[in-house]
Design goal:
- It is built from three helices and five strands, in the order ββββαβαα.
- With about 120 residues, it is α+β, with helices and mostly antiparallel strands.
- The protein has a domain of about 80 residues: Ribosomal protein S16 (S16 Ribosomal Protein, Chain: A, 2-Layer Sandwich), CATH 3.30.1320.
- Strands 4-3-2-1-5 form a five-stranded mixed β-sheet.
- A hairpin with a 2-residue loop joins strand 1 and strand 2.
- About 15% of the residues are buried.
């Protein structure tokens, strides 16, 4: 049985509210879970103290028991100091601008640097 710490969606239409739960990895997203470990309300401002509420002692218990957090929950746990912050990889090459767009950007950068006036050198005496 693989345990996951993940989010379970609740709330109304267009008003999401998530419970952070530990569940069997085979159970449905909003289905059966073992224990509720906190809440996440994305409708609140990022600086609001009740945006992410966690139960740190229960989360550490489940992490020691082998539960793996989802990517989003791992980010929350890293911000709370319960585990190291996840490393973010480089931007994938797939999403990089295509060749023609890169050429246009390079040409625009060259034109901007050519148009910028050179700072006058101070005369040395």
């Amino acid at each position: 049985m693989g345990l996951k710490i993940r989010m379970s969606r609740g709330g109304a239409k267009k008003r999401p509210f998530y419970s952070i739960v530990v569940a069997d990895s085979r159970s449905p997203r909003d289905g059966r879970f073992i224990e509720k470990l906190g809440t996440y309300n994305p409708m609140l401002d990022k600086s609001h103290p009740e945006r992410v509420m966690l139960k740190p002692e229960r989360i550490t218990h489940w992490l020691k028991a082998g539960a793996l957090p989802s990517d989003r929950v791992a980010r929350f746990l890293g911000d709370a100091g319960l585990r190291p912050k996840p490393e973010y990889g480089e931007t994938p090459k797939k999403s990089a601008p295509k060749a023609k767009a890169q050429e246009r950007a390079k040409a625009a950068a060259d034109a901007a640097s050519a148009a910028a006036p050179e700072p006058a050198a101070a005369p040395s005496a």
